Amino acid sequence: MEQQFTRYGIVLVTASSEAEGKAIASSLISSKLAACVSLFPVQSIYTWQEEIHHEQEWQLIIKTDLTHFNTLAKKIQELHSYEVPEIIALPIIEGSQSYLNWIGANVS
């Protein structure tokens, strides 16, 4: 039997540097807005102010309880250097119950 776990999700954020990504991640974890944040370097190609940019960025994959999304997004915007940071939430539609319980226990 399939179950929907839309309470939990992944929030994607890109940061301009490893240091900025780690600062955002640490703040989200210490504020109990995220259970875990994974970071890795990515190459982004995007349009900003009518120009195409090719940039090295850091991708944050934030595991969280989406009922706290507004507070999480506000915290990210306070800490982020970008005028328009990427903050995209994706619901977890299936997952191991023990992992989802762990997310729930670590986000408040």
UniProtKB/TrEMBL annotation:
Species this protein is from: Aphanothece hegewaldii CCALA 016
An example Gene Ontology biological process: response to metal ion
Molecular function GO labels: copper ion binding
Tree of life domain: Bacteria
Stored InterPro entries: Ion_tolerance_CutA, N-reg_PII-like_a/b, N-reg_PII/ATP_PRibTrfase_C
One Pfam family of this chain: CutA1
The family this protein is said to belong to: Belongs to the CutA family.
PANTHER family linked to this entry: DIVALENT CATION TOLERANCE CUTA-RELATED, FI09726P
The protein, known as: Divalent-cation tolerance protein CutA
